[in-house]
Specification:
Layout lengths: L1 H20 L5 E6 L3 E3 L4 E8 L5 E3 L11 E7 L3 E7 L4 E5 L3 E5 L7 E4 L3 E6 L1 H4 L24
Parallel strand pairs: 2-10
Antiparallel strand pairs: 1-3, 3-6, 4-8, 5-6, 7-10, 8-9
């Protein structure tokens, strides 16, 4: 019985030691809701940081936009940040890798992780809809015949 108790405590001690010795991995993930849009259409660009508990994170500031795309809105969260982007110029856009700063609990210095780059294609409405060249003003509303006026 003495050997069983000793073995039990040895297993518990080693499992606790092994659990605390394995550091949690820092993972940064980036995604866009659409990689092909038309001019003026919104794009949701989301950066998510998977960090150990107690870790502080700082997401990039969108002052100049991302890769030629304008930031329309920022939706913050504790471990995730979504940027609503748009542009009115057709073409291929590349959002370069973005730095995410994080500081682990008890650390004094900030560390950095980077996202992957993201490719976005912005298409012209005219190229997507060839008949769109025939755009005209809307017509005036039609008048209703008097027998149907009482339904309004």
């Amino acid at each position: 019985m003495n050997k069983t108790v000793t073995a039990f405590f040895a297993v518990v001690f080693l499992s606790v030691f092994a659990f605390t010795a394995v550091a949690e991995e820092i993972r940064v993930r980036v995604e866009v809701d659409k990689d092909t849009v038309t001019i003026g259409e919104e794009i949701r660009y989301t950066i998510e940081a998977r960090l150990p508990s107690g870790t502080s994170v700082e997401f990039p500031a969108p002052e100049g936009g991302f890769g030629g795309l304008t930031v329309k809105d920022v939706i913050p969260s504790e471990k995730k940040q979504t940027y609503v982007l748009e542009t009115f110029d057709p073409g291929e856009y590349t959002i370069p890798p973005q730095p995410i700063k994080y500081k682990e609990k008890g650390a004094t210095e900030w560390r950095e992780a980077k996202t992957d780059k993201v490719e976005i294609n912005v298409e012209s409405v005219l190229a997507k809809y060839p008949d769109a060249r025939d755009i005209r003003d809307i017509k005036v509303p039609l008048g209703l015949p008097s027998p149907y006026a009482f339904f309004l």
